[in-house]
Design a protein that fits this description.
Shape: elongated
Radius of gyration: 28 Å
Strand content: 15-25%
Number of helices: 12
Helix content: 25-40%
Distance between the termini: 42 Å
Strand order of the largest sheet: 1-5-6-12-11-10-7-9-8
């Protein structure tokens, strides 16, 4: 007996109804992107290693899936789609001076440590606004995220909004080198403010800076936290970041979505290429953010074009988990018609199937086994979201069963006196 192969750790098969629901969810999200004027783009699943090199500020090299082509070039499976979009935009739209709106769907691959128990392949949907450094662009991105969530039926969620420049102003005022900065970021991302205080003590940072970092944990909440943050902003860079956040919030009021925004000035950013506002979306039923995004005004420069930009990704797998756990129905309208036919009715069954398909009705044909009861086929149809089952009997009778209500209807009989 041949050994059965299973999927590698961190990846899995998605099929039948679950796959259908996932595709339906992606389709609804894409419609919202298109409503905001975003255009589709597809980038390669693998790229040259340089697209994700360390100075880009994306996923660490140790977590990349690397391999070689025949010429000896190092290639990687993309861990993050934004650098690919930046690379493509710098090339394809090199001379374009007006803003470019792009959206995409694709899988990303990160070789997490096995003990983390996290998926190594995830589906992401995202939008990128290239060539616009305005407050209005920031607000549009956030409004697009919120409308996307509302469209799919998610009502209980929050977007946490911060600013890399505000956090960076504290780093600069404390005169932290790169190693110390990384350590502080790690501690704060784990909400270990006691550890931050201990570490800053150990490297003899001035008192005002220690107090500023210690207060970050309290700068989480409504728009009022921006006023409190002004008290610890050490320089003009921090003040300007707070003023921008206030303007973004005022613009979001025009969209009528400000109630979904909270501020978290302890946010340090998922990726090193973030330069301004950063945000993450959270809801019940998932342990990680369902949305991640931010401004990256210098990323395209790495590929030869100066162009301020902002974007976000929706982690589709996390979003699906949240919807299922919150018992929010993912609209999945696949309503196949099943044609079940007895021996001798194949010709009529094929003719009926062709007619239904010409009318754009999804139609599945099954020849009835003598060993199986009609009820087994009815249950099969319900399990796979069919709408109707048409049973073409050997005696010429045709019965339609509504698989939602259970109603039976005789459509006709070729020979009412025929024997089964």
């Amino acid at each position: 007996m041949k050994k059965r192969l299973h999927t590698p750790e961190g990846v899995r098969d998605i099929y039948n109804v679950e796959c259908g629901k996932k595709l339906a969810l992606e389709s609804r999200l894409k419609k919202v992107f298109h409503l905001y004027g975003y255009h589709d783009i597809q980038t390669p699943t693998f790229e040259y290693f340089d697209v994700f090199r360390e100075e880009i500020g994306t996923t660490p090299s140790r977590e990349l899936y690397k391999f070689f082509d025949k010429e000896g070039n190092t290639l990687v499976l993309r861990p993050d789609i934004t650098p690919s979009i930046a690379r493509a935009s710098a090339t394809l739209f090199e001379e374009e001076e007006l803003p470019i709106r792009l959206c995409y769907t694709g899988n990303t691959f990160i070789n997490h440590s096995s003990y983390q128990g996290r998926p190594k392949e995830t589906t992401q949907m995202g939008a990128e606004l290239i060539g616009d450094d305005s407050v209005e662009a920031d607000a549009e991105m956030l409004a697009l995220v919120i409308e996307s969530m509302l469209t799919i039926g998610l009502k209980e969620f929050q977007l946490s909004l911060g600013d890399v420049d505000f956090f960076q102003s504290l780093i600069e005022d404390a005169c932290l080198d790169e190693e110390a900065k990384d350590r502080v970021c790690e501690l704060i991302s784990n909400h270990n403010y006691y550890g931050v205080e201990e570490f800053l003590d150990s490297i003899q940072v001035k008192r005002s800076s220690k107090e500023a970092f210690a207060s970050l944990g309290e700068l989480v909440g409504g728009v009022e936290v921006l006023a409190h943050a002004r008290d610890i902003a050490p320089n003009s860079k921090g003040i300007m970041a707070l003023k921008r956040l206030e303007k973004i919030y005022d613009t979001l009021k025009l969209y009528g979505v400000e109630k979904f925004i909270t501020f978290d000035l302890s946010m340090t950013g998922t990726y090193g290429y973030y330069t301004g506002i950063i945000f993450q979306g959270y809801t019940f039923g998932t342990g990680d953010a369902i949305v991640k995004g931010g401004r990256y005004d210098h990323l395209l420069e790495k590929f030869g074009k100066q162009s301020p930009s902002i974007g976000f990704v929706i982690v589709v797998d996390e979003l699906m988990n949240a919807l299922i756990r919150q018992k929010i129905r993912i609209v999945y309208t696949r309503k196949n018609t099943i044609i079940l036919y007895d021996e001798g009715r194949q010709k009529e069954a094929i003719a009926l199937a062709k007619d239904l398909r010409r009318k754009a009705k999804n139609t599945e044909m099954i020849k009835k086994s003598k060993e199986k009861l009609l009820e087994e086929y009815v249950e099969y149809g319900r399990e796979y979201y069919a709408g109707n089952l048409i049973y073409m009997k050997k005696n010429g009778e045709i019965t339609m069963i509504n698989l939602v209500t259970g109603d039976h209807k005789i459509l006709g009989s070729k020979d009412k006196n025929a024997e089964n």
